[in-house]
Amino acid sequence: MLPSFPRNPGLGAALALTGALAPVAASAHVKWFAPYIVDAAPAPIIRTLNDPWFWTGIILVLAFFIVTRLVERTVFGERALDAMDRATNPLWLRLDDFVRIMIAGFFVAIFSVGGVYLTPDLKTPAEWVSWLQLLIAAGIVSRKTMPFSAAGIIFLWVLALRDYDPFHLLDYLALGVAVAAYLVLESSDRPDWRKHRFEVLRWGVAIALMWSSLEKFAYPEWFYPLVDEKPFLTFGLPRDIFIPMAGVAEFTMGFGLLATPLVRRLSALALLVIFITAVYPFGRVDLIGHALIMAIIIVIAADHTRELNFWSWIRRALIGVPIGLTGALLIFVTAYWGLHAAFYGTDTQTMAEIRAAQGEMATHSYSTEHPHGPQALATLRDGEELPQVEAVGLDDTAVASAYAQSMVKMHDEMMAGLQHEDRDVAFVLGMIPHHQGAIDMARIQLATGSDPENMELARHIIAEQLQEIDAMHAWLEARGIQVPDS
User: Higher-confidence residue: 298 or 23?
Assistant: First the structure.
């Protein structure tokens, strides 16, 4: 039965567009590491408010902001800003050129990646999207066509709303709305509009950072597998100390981008260091995904503007630091927890409850590309699944059958690969299915096992073997050798 729309054409069209853009499969929010289970209820905010490490982080940041504001009022603050101006002056004189080059380069990069919307996180099977991205990059060459590129960016952002969860698309506000707004303002002939072009970029990144930082309070369990796989990320701090303090750092540095010139530029420099250091452990895809955000952060650090256009009195006042931070926390926490309840309801389980019911690794929807699938089902290969039985009380015969299937597949592919005439190539072609067999066994263990040491070993095997498989694929591709489909 078709829905009946009101006779008001404008409202009817709006409702039709809303229906067309309704999420197709919004149960998972795909990020760098795995598709998260986002319809789980966020942890009660009282858990964060009872965490002493949260308050430790807040106090440390408040102290830093207040000291920086006190220094900023003195001659030393002026000298510090003047020194930053001199250091960044060559970039400042060509800042619009830099931004336009980075935006165009970003869209060329994701065109080259292919199959994504505005970031490698947001995948799409529509090939024409990549060509639209190339047109967006081309439109940035001329100020006359920049508004069309801005419209294209907004169109991609809205398309992503159709395929992904609108609640978590707010993470990508800076990549969509803010960049598009910059292009519109930069192409304008009105000076009173153009003067806000860098400010809109700053607000877009700040809002995106503050919004996404709340995941560390609402869903700290999402980050447990990542911390387990890459323990160096915590700088030696225990997991339950590092995650809330990292959330505080991300939120407050985002807030700092909206503050007075010295505070925002120091916040931008700190964020730039964090993003740059993330490139090595997470690789080139991470660099592509964050390139535009990093470029905007560089713009903030190089921006010589000292004028405050909005709420200048409270932003300059010393008391404005705690008042502003408190207000920002209240607004964002209320919006995050409130909008989640509006989208998903209030009768869903929290991640802690899901993990207690399904196991240590039940933080994500299952993905064959990542080792963090739920416990109830493990996929051996595309289209080939374990018997669909509950993880608790699995039948021994079903588990043995799953192991047997994986070993037969591994053996057949190994023997085929070892027949290659080149001994070095034969070794690699044999080792790839060997490693994949270990991954398949580890996934079966995660789906059916219970021993904590074995579960940890299985996670370690998956992470290590995936990295080595990628290295072997790269070795073969460098020699022009086609890897047989598994």
Answer: 298
